[in-house]
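FORM 7B - TANDEM STRUCTURE REPORT

SECTION 1: FIRST PROTEIN
SEQUENCE AND TOKENS:
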Amino acid sequence: MTVSDWCYTVLIASGLLIDYFVSGPAFLRRSQLDQPSARMWLWSVWMTLLWALVVVGIALWLSNERAWLALGMAVPKGWRLWGSVILVVGFALHQVRTAAKIARISGPK
């Protein structure tokens, strides 16, 4: 492991500790006041943290000039490709149908 790998590991551990010791108690305080907005806030914090770690990880991977194949990032071939395509298209269609159903629901007036 390189120095940057260790720094990235420390960054991940720090993010988890901040989540546990800062975000968790803040969520509990917020949820006593307004539970739906507290959930949205917590979700936003988690997504921001996770995507920031992904961006930093990709930047480190690229800066060290490592091969994507070492992560298993290769385009599948044969039945794996078509199986993946079918699953992704099926999931997308399911999401579109669900969104259309939700859009048709009329709320209280």
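SECTION 2: SECOND PROTEIN
SEQUENCE AND TOKENS:
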Amino acid sequence: MLQRCQNKNSVAYKNYGGRGIKTSKNWRKFENFRDDMYESYSKHKIKFGGGHQTSLERIDNNQGYSKKNCKWATWKEQCTNLRVNKILYFRGSKKTLKQWSELLNMNYFAIHARIKN
């Protein structure tokens, strides 16, 4: 998180600090980050079990890292929050193509082809 947002030599800097994503000044000290996020981390571990890897996710990809804008998420959850995702509106809801394919029990590529055509 800190490297992505502050270190101009980081490979990921252009997608984070380079586009204005900042880290809460309070979180630059690890103990503050730990204190802010530990409770939600513990709840997430209980919900998903010890075997699921979690990482820090920004709820709004255009905002920085802060207690208000961060949560713990599994890799599958994080994949729904990528800037490259195409969001589809259907039946009054918005979801990613992958989420719709799972919800409707339809092949991802079939949906993609239908939309493209």
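SECTION 3: OBSERVATIONS ON SECOND PROTEIN
The mean pLDDT is 86.
Residues 30-48 form the longest helix (19 residues).

SECTION 4: SIGNATURE
Preparer initials: ____
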